[in-house]
Specification:
This protein is an alpha+beta fold. It has helices at 9-15, 59-71, 76-100, 134-148; strands at residues 40-56, 104-116, 119-133. The chain contains four helices and three strands. Residues 1-11 have low confidence and may be disordered.
Length: 160
């Protein structure tokens, strides 16, 4: 079983307040915490996108975690809850980006806030962009240059 919620869309659809598309247009590999995506050129910026999810600890989860703290080490119940919550916020952000027509998200960040005791909000946000592979961009610029300057030789990469 995968760790990604898109593999269980029906589960995600029950838990998020937004419409879920059958397939995301922004794949996971087209996201980055950097402000540039290696091998691609940003051709249009669409704006900030976000995914927000709010979670509370269940009584049973809290009791189980309390028992794990007695033993010490990693508190797996909270680790799983945190990972699931972050994954949901990430998927909602991708959905928001897809709805804007993006094919990538740059500058991805997370933020978490405790709203009240035992209730936390996780926010995943970034900048939705449309990117084009560098080779494709270079080819389109060369073609554009040939149209703008019909006297240039094919493949002539003169500076404008």
């Amino acid at each position: 079983m995968s760790n990604y919620p898109e593999d269980s869309e029906s589960h995600l659809a029950e838990e998020v307040p937004y419409r879920i598309a059958p397939k995301y247009k922004v794949p996971h590999h087209m996201t980055t915490t950097a402000f540039a995506l290696e091998g691609f050129r940003v051709i249009r910026t669409l704006g900030v996108v976000r995914g927000i999810t709010v979670r509370s600890r269940s009584l049973f989860g809290t009791l189980g975690a309390t028992l794990q703290t007695i033993v010490g080490g990693n508190i797996t119940m909270f680790t799983k809850l945190c990972e699931k919550t972050r994954a949901e916020a990430f998927e909602i952000m991708l959905q928001h980006a897809s709805e804007l027509g993006a094919n990538a998200v740059v500058g991805v960040r997370y933020d978490a806030t405790e709203i009240m005791s035992g209730v936390s909000e996780v926010l995943c946000y970034g900048t939705a962009v449309i990117v084009q592979p560098l080779e494709t961009f270079a080819q389109s610029e060369t073609a554009k240059g040939a149209i703008d300057n019909p006297n240039s030789a094919p493949g002539d990469a003169r500076q404008r």
